[in-house]
Amino acid sequence: MSALEERGALTSRPSLYAYVLGLLAAEPDGRPPVGGYPPPDEPSAPPGAVRLRGKKAFTAVRSALGPLLSGPDTRTAVEAVERRLAGLPVPVGALVGAVLSLPLDDEAAARALGRRLVLTGRESRSVSVGLALMRRLGEPEDVPSLRTIARLRNLSRLAMTALQPLDPQTAALLWLDERVRNPELRPLVDALIAGPASGFRALLAGRSWDVQAVGPAPARRIAEAAGLAGLLRDGPVDPRLLARAGRLLVRMASPRDYQAEILCYGDAVEVCETVVRRASALPPTVGHAAVLLPLAVDLHSGPTHLLPWRDGQREQLLDALGALLASPAWEGAFEEPGPDAPSAVRRRAAWLRYTSDVLFRTPGPSGRLRLVVLSRDPADDEPVETRVLVDGTPLVPALFARGAAEAPEYLLDRGALRATEEPHEVMLAEAWCSEGCCGALRVTVVREGDEVVWRDWCHPARLPSGDPAPELPAYRFDAAAYDAELTRATAGDGWSWPARTAGRLIDAGLRERPGLLARWDARFLHAGVDHRAPDTTVVWFLYRPGFFEGAADEDGPWLQFVWRLPDDGAPPAERAAAALRRLAEEDPRAYADCIAGSR
After folding, report:
1. Cα separation, 430 vs 404, whole angstroms
2. Rounded to a whole number, what is the distance in angstroms from the first to the last CA of the chain?
3. How far is CA 402 from CA 129, 325, 391, in A?
4. What is the pLDDT of residues 430-440, one digit of tens each?
């Protein structure tokens, strides 16, 4: 036995699989607690221990474990794996990544070892190796063991990833049981877990839960756990279930998550096809129009566009939606409400008309580049995006998929996409959490003679799936066609509403006349709308003593202010002009709210 193996001599502790079985047996109803079980105490690396990563980690894992993956005696191999792991200075994430990439000369032997590690491994690292092998080589007979070991909190994600291709429904139920704590959604999850499957149709179609409260990841798992594709395929047409299915598809395509969940949903194409082909069964209401139109938005230029469609299938579905929503029966859903209607109703009605015009009645440009300003149902508080299509492909979901495309105020109003001979970097999208957390998609834009070039892409090193991100090529556009498309997209503002338009006018005015705020030792940040109160225009600025005279200390005291201007019904141009006059005449610190600052 080598010194490396001697340092990792095994103890008599039970396997983690047996540990979970014991805990489950002690539960009165056989159900684990929400969130699963904590792992038992395990030895930890000494403080300051060197940890290998990247290529060094892969080399170390291949050297230590590679020979064991094709050994005939899996019982002995399990013990050898645990001994060698004890002396391997590689963190779990790098360990799993290396095992997922190791060459396997004998898949049957590696599968047998993976199964034995899952069932008999006594520490999380050895079981993680087994789960990584099951992720590559698992078979349907492995579902029960994977389902059990997934109840350990520190192994649940890896176990569910291995389970997903084998039994998506079980993986989804486990995910929902572990993650969902929302009191509005938890009763649905408990009912799905309790079954029986024969009741799932009534459960999804019922009124006991609100799809708007469901994030993209839970939306996919609900569809998988309930077997949504089968419910739509096998039963009679139920308008309530059809509408719910459409809403779940739209929620899966939302940019407010770490990946485009719709692209991970194996039944997405079938469910989309079924919803669109049967959409005529939906009563022609505003609410149902607000289900079908966001679905069309995502088919047009969202992540749903990127699903593995048959040739022409996606275009046919878009045409079908356009024909249905333009039919006489649906005219009432697109009528303009009266002036006394609530502002949210008027905003939604304007969005319905604008979006249907853009999708179904406005011809696209003939060049490589198309810029389209679109959003989903404003009732869902989704962002307004400047969607960039190159050769018909939406770039942000194809290259990034961690957040929404940037707002038109930045890319269009402020001219970020305008090309000059001086190269400049443009952010096309930011992760839904923040750029500092999960990155952004940036590109350098420059004019080179009669061409505009997008080059030198900057993006996260890995895709949301964990795979390495590909190197992105330079895109070249005819300069005249590029300028024409940018002018066309900038000229349209049907996507805006009064409070947002007022904010855009204030923003433009303060960028043209920076001295309006500078005289008060204030630096303008930006103006727009409060997404929590979309009828309120907001102006953000930063106060630093001495800023006007150029004597402000960047490390010195500062205060951040926001000035909120509720919509008073006046035309946006009048509101903006009045706001700029007041900023010129009165110190805004007297009427804006201080929201942050130095001690």
Report:
1. 7
2. 61
3. 28, 31, 22
4. 998 888 888 99
Residues 6+ apart with CB under 8 A from 494: 350, 354, 357, 358
pLDDT, residue 9, reads 42
301 closest CA partner among 221, 226, 358: 358
> Distance (Å, rounded) from C-alpha 570 to C-alpha 551?
39
Q: What pLDDT score does 51 carry? A: 76
pLDDT of residue 537: 98
The side-by-side arrangement of strands in the sheet containing 593-597 is 522-530, 533-543, 559-566, 593-597
Q: What count of other Cβ atoms lies within 10 Å of the Cβ of residue 433?
A: 14
pLDDT at 2 exceeding the cut of 70: no
Q: What is the DSSP string of 187-221?
A: HHHHHHHH--GGGHHHHHHSSSS-GGG--HHHHHH
Burial (CB count <10 Å: 0-12, 13-18, 19+), residue 545: middle
Tokens of 215: 């994030």
Burial annotation 192-227 (CB, 10 A radius, 16+ → b, else e):
beeeeeeebbebbbeeebebeebbbbbbbbbbbbbb
| Cβ 465 vs Cβ 443: under 8 Å | no
**Collapsed DSSP state (helix, strand, coil) of residue 496:** coil
Cis amide leading into 196 (omega within 30): yes
- Two tokens, residue 180: 């969902």
Alpha-carbon Rg for the chain, nearest whole angstrom, is: 28
Residue 48 has what pLDDT?
Answer: 52
Lowest mean pLDDT of 33-37, 271-275, 381-385, name the range: 33-37
CA distance 217 to 150: 18
**Rounded distance between C-alpha atoms, residue 505 and residue 573, angstroms:** 7
Residues 449-472 have pLDDT tens digits of 999 999 999 998 877 776 778 889
Give me the chain's average pLDDT, please.
91
Backbone angles phi, psi at 159, to 5 degrees: -65, -40
Please choose, from the candidates 217, 110, 210, the residue with its C-alpha nearest in 3D space to the C-alpha of residue 171: 217
DSSP assignment letter at 534: E
Cβ neighbours of 589 (radius 10 Å): 16
CA dihedral of residues 159, 163, 165, 170 (deg, nearest 10): -140
According to DSSP, the β-strands at 440-448 and 451-458 are antiparallel
pTM reported for the whole predicted model: 0.89
Tokens 């080598």, residue located: 2
pLDDT at 7: 38
**Residue 385 DSSP SS3:** strand
